[in-house]
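Here is an idea for our session: we take a single protein and study its fold together. To get us started, please write out a protein record for me. Start from the sequence, derive the backbone structure tokens from it, and show both lines together. Go ahead whenever you are ready, and we will take it from there:
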Amino acid sequence: MTPALIAEARGRIAPLCQRTPVWSSRRFDEAAGVRTFFKCENFQKGGSFKIRGASNLVLSLSPAERERGVVAYSSGNHAQAVAIAARHVGAQCTIVMPADAPRSKLEATAGYGATVVTYDRFRESREEITTEFIRRTGAVLAHPFNDPRIVAGHGTAAAELIEECPDLDALTSPVSSGGLLAGCAIAAKGARPGIRIFGAEPEGANDTFLSLQAGKRLTVKPDTIADGLRSASPGELTFPILQRLVETVVLVTDDEMRATIAFLLTRMKILVEPSGVVAAAAALYRKLPVELKSVGVILSGGNLDLEELSWGRLSSLPPAF
């Protein structure tokens, strides 16, 4: 994994991915105590950064591989991204998704032309279901994080951000199994070696936080509203990258994520899902080092069910700032 692979990915994914905007907010900066620049991947095609990695993988497949079709497992954002990329190249696409995934993500994935296979994430294994499907069909696996093409594609978000904001002191992104954070760390360090890299993770899904402390990959039972960050363990490919390049991972609560969603929606008029807002919550609740003057924050996605935005849910939270 090198910055050169990320540069190659930028050219490959151009037909499918947008260059998302970088926004800032004086009110957020005042509350967070640091100058913050948001890379708005919630405006990306498919509503999240996931299209970057998925398109880099799918667009690199040979004609024979495309003919065999693509399969992936995901709670939603990777699912939509793979479906979009597969449709672009005319490949059949099957996505294995938990039955309790957000309805908007299930419907969107099917709407992009994928065949959705649901499973009970408490009693069934998505990996076993996917492996059996590959055995029967020969489909190509679009792994959500343990593939260099996925990691390189995700790193293009940070490459764009550093181009636009070259003097950042730090960069922080959400971390689940580590594909986004690993790719962003490689891109950011390649362009600006002195930049500090931080991950942000829910308290109820703190597998990377604990694994970095232990020096080895650990497994947890995730329990968080951030459905896209419910990984049980860091990825085999990504964890060594995080060990090498990431200073630390900070933790935020579900209520801090909810309050940050409300803050961004009411103050900045942008919609971000819980998984996408965790890095912003880390900044807003001042969990990053106090000496930082500027930080780039990846808002990784905005696919939030409308029911989650009910006035009662938001208004029940105490004013945070």
